[in-house]
From TrEMBL:
Listed SUPFAM superfamilies: Nudix
Cofactor: Mg(2+)
Residues annotated as domain Nudix hydrolase: 36-164
PROSITE patterns assigned: NUDIX
Superkingdom field: Bacteria
PANTHER family: GDP-MANNOSE MANNOSYL HYDROLASE (PTHR43046:SF12)
Name by which UniProt lists this protein: NUDIX hydrolase
Native source species: Hyalangium minutum
Annotated Gene3D superfamilies: Nucleoside Triphosphate Pyrophosphohydrolase (3.90.79.10)
Coiled-coil intervals, chain numbering: none
MF term (GO), any: hydrolase activity
Family annotation (CDD domains): NUDIX_Hydrolase (cd02883)
Length: 174
């Protein structure tokens, strides 16, 4: 590896660390705002499935495991939000016709009332994932039962529990 390549790599790692720190700071400020204001918010998560394996990720600013998702931009539909977040967070580009509505729930966490919509997609092959190592620091497909053993936010646990029930292996016939 050349000195120039090593220097660029070191600069990128330093920049990534600074951006992760900024994300943690911004999240802390958001939590303080939510504590004071107790707002109603809304968002979208996308369950990406390959058989009984679901895509989970770890954000740099949260302790809990999550799924691709986030808040809607002004004028953006739930479907558009889900497609955008999939591309931004894990590099997946899907068509709107591939996603379907799975669940919507209201939860009271992080000092706010959060209306969360879940979309989902079943993929025939496990896709390659691209994460930025800034907002998203880890992503992988896990068996849904293993995913339910991890610390996940309540709305995600509700979705995974319901999805696991729907995806239960059929009983063997006798």
């Amino acid at each position: 590896m050349s000195v120039w390549t090593e220097a660029r790599s070191a600069a990128r790692e330093l920049t990534d660390a600074a951006v992760r720190t900024a994300y943690r700071g911004a999240y802390s400020l958001a939590m303080a705002y939510w504590f004071v204001r107790r707002p109603s918010t809304g968002g979208v998560f996308v369950g990406v499935w390959h058989g009984r394996r679901v895509l989970l990720l770890q954000n740099s600013y949260k302790r809990l495991f999550s799924m691709p998702g986030g808040g809607a931009h002004p004028g953006e539909s739930h479907l558009e939000t889900g497609l955008r977040e999939l591309h931004e967070e894990v590099g997946l580009t899907l068509s709107a016709s591939q996603l379907r509505t799975a669940l919507d729930v209201v939860h009271y966490e992080e000092y706010k009332r959060d209306h969360v919509y879940f979309l989902e997609v079943d993929l025939d092959t496990e896709p390659a994932l691209t994460i930025d190592r800034r907002e998203v620091v880890w992503a992988a497909f896990l068996d849904v039962d293993a995913a339910l053993q991890l610390p996940v936010a309540s709305p995600i646990r509700d979705y995974l529990t319901e999805a696991a029930r729907r995806r239960a292996a059929p009983a063997p016939s006798s």
